[in-house]
Amino acid sequence: MREDRQKPVIGLTGGIASGKSAVAKVLRALGVAVVDADQLAREVVAKGTEGLAELIREFGEDVVTETGELDRERMAGRVFGNAEARARLNAITHPRIAALSMARLAEMQTTDTPYVVYEVPLLVESGLHKSMAATIVVAADPDTQLARMAKRDGLDRAQAQTRIDAQLPLEEKVAIADYVIENNGGLEELEALTRDVHRQILERFQPR
């Protein structure tokens, strides 16, 4: 039976290759609704959308593949290191992502989820954490991050370090967190830590 009370929205973020998606997967298995900002970012520029049509008008026909989908590598190459091009890209995508996020978060309020998780890589950088009921930060030590990135993305250590350095320092995200999940071990340990945070959130936001 659904309750009419507003369900808290919990922000989920962390460093690159820290394990945000793995934590989100565990939370989903526990019955928690998760809204993934990265997935929404793909949806707003999916084949046939007005978002993709506007990107084509702004950046040219060559930003799509032969099958009519966004060529992400080409688009990334177009805006990498070009602040003006990135600003043009963001002006097209960010309002659409924000609108879709709000719609999905509102939709989740009508479900049986005990709370809603909003997974956003740049949650702290964007200031969105200030509007969350609480924030979970998934952290990993630098060596673990480097190893995971090298394996996941096929990068050498120097390339991986460059990407890590381009983000807000992890300690600054940890500093604002209500809950920190240190993901330096295996999946079993991560699941246990996530379950513990889930329990704490339920206790904190349970209706009295």
Give the tally of β-strands: 5
Strand content: 5-15%
Unreliable residue stretches: none
Integer average pLDDT = 90
Task: State the name of the first-level CATH class of the largest domain.
Answer: Alpha Beta
CATH architecture term of the largest domain: 3-Layer(aba) Sandwich
What's the shape? globular
Distance between the termini: 17 Å
In helices, the fraction of residues equals 40-55%
Radius of gyration: 18 Å
Task: Record the strand order, biggest sheet.
Answer: 2-3-1-4-5
CATH topology of the largest domain: Rossmann fold
> How many H/I helical runs?
9
Outline the biggest β-sheet: 5 strands, parallel
Q: Element order, helices and strands?
A: EHEHHHHEEHHHEH
CATH-assigned homologous superfamily of the largest domain: P-loop containing nucleotide triphosphate hydrolases
Structural domains: how many: 2
Q: Which structural class do the helices and strands define?
A: alpha/beta
Account of the 3D structure:
The chain has helices at residues 20-29, 37-43, 50-59, 72-79, 83-108, 142-153, 157-165, 170-176, 187-205; strands at 9-14, 33-36, 116-119, 134-139, 179-182. With 208 residues, it is of the alpha/beta class. It has 2 domains: 7-32 and 115-208, P-loop containing nucleotide triphosphate hydrolases (Rossmann fold); 41-112, no CATH class. The chain has a 5-stranded parallel beta sheet with strand order 2-3-1-4-5, with helices on both faces. Helix 1 (20-29) packs across helix 9 (187-205) and helix 6 (142-153) crosses helix 7 (157-165). The longest helix has 26 residues, at 83-108. The mean pLDDT is 90.
